[in-house]
Amino acid sequence: MSAEPSGTLLVDYDEATRRYDPVIGIEVHVELGTATKMFDGAPQEFGGEPNSATTPVSLGLPGSLPVVNEKAVESAILIGLALNCEIAELCRFARKNYFYPDVPKNYQISQYDEPIAHDGWLDVELEDGTVVRVEIERAHMEEDAGKNTHVGGATGRIHGAEYSLVDYNRAGVPLVEIVTRPITGVGDRAPEVARAYVQTLRDLFRALGVSEARMERGNVRADVNVSLRPTPDSPLGTRTETKNVNSFRSVERAVRYEVSRQAAVLDAGASVVQETRHWHEDTGVTTAGRVKSDAEDYRYFPEPDLVPLVPSRDWVEALRARLPEMPAARRRRLQDEWGYADAEMRDVVNAGAVELIEATVAAGASPAAARKWWMGELARTANADGVALEELTVTPGQIAELQGLVDSGRLNDKLARQVLAGVLAGEGSPEQVVAARGLEVVSDDGALIAAVDDALAAQPDAAEKIRGGNLGPVGAIIGAVMKATRGQADAARVRELVLERIKA
Amino acid sequence: MSDLTRLSAAALADRLSAGEASSVEATRAHLDRIAAVDGAVHAFLHVSADDALATAADVDARRAAGEQLHPLAGVPIAVKDVVVTKGLPTTAGSRILEGWVPPYDATLVERIKAAGLPILGKTNMDEFAMGSSTEHSAFGDTHNPWDLDRIPGGSGGGSAAAVAAYEAPLAIGTDTGGSIRQPAAVTGTVGTKPTYGGVSRYGLIAMASSLDQAGPVTRTVLDAALLHALIGGHDPRDSTSLPDPLPDVVGAARLGASGDLTGVRLGVVRELGGDGYQPGVRARFEESLEVLQAAGAEVVEVSCPNFQYALAAYYLIMPSEASSNLAKFDGMRFGLRVEPADGPVTAERVMAATRGRGFGDEVKRRVILGTYALSAGYYDAYYGSAQKVRTLVQRDFAAAFEQADVLVSPTAPTTAFRLGEKLDDPMAMYLNDVATIPANLAGVPGISVPNGLDGGLPTGFQVLAPAKADDRLYRVGAALEALLEARWGGPLLASAPELEETR
Lengths: 504, 503
Description:
The structure holds 2 protein chains of 2 kinds.
Chain A: H1 13-19, E1 21-31, H2 70-82, E2 86-87, E3 94-97, E4 107-110, E5 117-125, E6 131-143, E7 147-151, E8 163-167, E9 174-180, H3 190-208, E10 220-229, E11 240-245, H4 248-267, E12 275-280, E13 285-291, E14 301-302, H5 313-322, H6 327-338, H7 342-350, H8 354-362, H9 367-385, H10 396-407, H11 413-424, H12 430-437, H13 445-458, H14 460-467, H15 474-484, H16 491-503
Parallel strand pairs in A: 11-12
Antiparallel strand pairs in A: 1-9, 1-10, 2-5, 3-4, 3-14, 5-6, 6-9, 7-8, 10-11, 12-13
Chain B: H1 9-17, H2 23-41, E1 44-47, H3 49-64, E2 77-80, H4 107-114, E3 119-123, H5 157-164, E4 170-174, H6 181-187, E5 190-193, E6 214-218, H7 221-231, H8 249-256, E7 265-269, H9 279-294, E8 298-302, H10 310-325, H11 347-358, H12 361-373, H13 380-403, E9 406-410, H14 426-431, H15 437-442, E10 446-454, E11 457-464, H16 470-488
Parallel strand pairs in B: 2-3, 2-4, 7-8, 7-9
Antiparallel strand pairs in B: 1-3, 4-6, 5-6, 5-10, 9-11, 10-11
Helix pairs in contact in B: 2-3, 7-8, 7-16, 8-16, 10-12, 10-13
């Protein structure tokens, strides 16, 4: 164990990438959303009573044996196919042996030299539209560990804790681990590529329906490998592996941090230590963990309690035929259908608004109107409240309804925003808010004519000018009418009436 | 002594179904016998008298009500302590599991319970089934009923001794390298290791997953077949369980009892005999061959050249798997938990202290051996090479079964040795299994049938059959049993000295 000196030296990121070529590699673990665990019938549920979702198998009791969850294998094959991998004709499970209390058997059933999927690729689109092809080395199946909670002590970490509790509810939850080949040639965009890769995978998992893929629940976890080399022609440098980086933003930050840190180490003439490192979300730094050179020996060997897995080609082809449209292709199709410019579409994607807009359009709004609402008023609201768009308490259906009221002339833009505020405040549907707040556009000409006459009488100079053919002051009259009707008049109709009444 | 304990399971079952005896009477008779002789034999680690009597009473009531029952319903049984039994302590002969009461039943125990067999208790064994003498039990030696100063074989010495001493008509054993067959041979009883995958391993505390197999321990070949048929067959909870239906082992045993083996080819394995085998063991084997030949069997000699490497391969594969299977015994979730005498109480140190105190020497030896064999840099040379030998042994079997319907050999190279005699010489101990290990490496079934005495101690005759052809074991085994008993004028066990009943 080497503790990181508190005053870790960092080289400015841009400076670091001018002197060194970063190479990254990413291992992503995704928890599959199967009803039961990887190797037994225990239910998979989030947030249950500790150790309630267990059986003799997931507790690793003496005598218990694993049985492979076919649904999990199906999900793994779907992921493999979506990543353009070859699906093994025969693959095996292997035991990874290590002692740790959250691993009930003191070995994890995983796959070693015979993974279910291998040799694929995934195209990843960066924010500016650049596409980077990430090569996939393998995707394999394994079981998750339980969860340790360290009680007592100030930090919640194991050091200084009085005792620790283990919850095996997560033990045995099916995981697929996806391992990239070294990602080279992306230069200073490595952090951005890392983030976009994980984000693209997340979208893919959701599209495939294999996982809820909620980062905040740890459904998707990334280990980030970073190394530096003097030039793109040099051999790969020594890498570090930063474990459990669990948000998109953190993936990007962790790569940046490691590039800066390793550059400082190399600049000082020292060598990067091959080790695992811990990511600290709060401070945005990594610290040294296990040194990998006294190589953890997992004593892998084929799991003798399981027989080799032989996915039939018919099954694989049936799954291939079932693959849904991939997120990137879908985005291209939607952009075409909606007629958005590249930059507009990118903003929509980056804002996480694709599904919301799609649903809003499906509910009857025009693509332009849907984008206007979600990228405008709603984006501002979400931003002000510090929440994601999908967390706002308004549905795409309500937005479509609101737009319908505008299109039919019953609301103007200003009123529509007030109605939206009512919806967001939980006052009901747009129709209900309109009714409750009395916000409809005044379409009774009688009332409007009276208001126009009042306004013209109040501003005789303006009336005179308009009568003389100078239409400049019309706006002032309309403004007065709008004020008198508390904004509930249709401005276009008011204008028509002003011109009519002048002639009268 | 009640004569109910002297009956075979089949004969006792007949009495029960004919209403000539009740299961409660039969169970009580066996519990009495245990109380009378087990002080000297020490076959049992735990006797479950109340549960057994309750099951017996239930079976009697159901029988009285006219319910259709399993043929063995009401016949008591003993279960090796490596098999988990809900609510009954299960230690696998180890301190590390002392006091552990499993919350679930092994599949074979579920089947036994569903069929209404009262479980008398749990039998002694070498710790985690590692040994050939039961001397590696953490809870004391089991004594051979033929000579209380001698070993009952192992690891299933408790089950074999219980059956040989009439403490139970039936018992469950497990066989990783001979732990059912070698104890059967040295106690004059019958033991079958079924085809790998033929009996569910769910609920067997694993030593070596790719080798372990549970099977029957009985006094007659027919009883073994009846018990085999009860516990065998597919189990979805064991991925290595065979999907095939079990062959008709009971029919084969009844057919074999006619004593006619016309047209059956017996392959004598050249490599399983000769110098390392006690002369009397060899003599009994030759005599048995003659008897079988006289019954119409054809004897051919076959060679399995790679069997000479089987023991070495076994002692790499078995400890490798065991080192991993036994990792779960760490004081964190169940069983013994030892905190370090001084210094910080961390999980790692509790694990080390628990394993240090909880495991015996033989277990530690194998865990260390296996850990080493699986280590990076050694894996290919040790585990990898051993797996290749395993393939060669399988090929030898395949070639031999082209020439013969079954293969035959002495079960063990010697008769029962004295307690303590080989305890300090692991190699000598391991050599006891030289004739039984090849079957485990290849997954083929084997049976041991008593075939005589040498110096007043029983010898065993081993029959091996191709995978999934367990019925052949019973046909040949039952024939040999019938022919020899005709010569002897009764079962071999009848010539065993009577145990002193102390109560």
